[in-house]
Design goal:
This protein has 30 residues and is mostly helical. It is built from 2 helices and no strands.
């Protein structure tokens, strides 16, 4: 429930940036 509230509270573009960061981090790990 708390996670859902945080997700709604954060802007959509924030999620996209987070995903991009995860993808970049994954490339660095690989």
């Amino acid at each position: 429930s708390a996670a859902g509230a945080e997700h709604q509270h954060q802007p959509p573009y924030g999620t996209e940036k987070a995903q991009a960061r995860e993808r970049t981090h994954a490339r660095e790990v690989i």
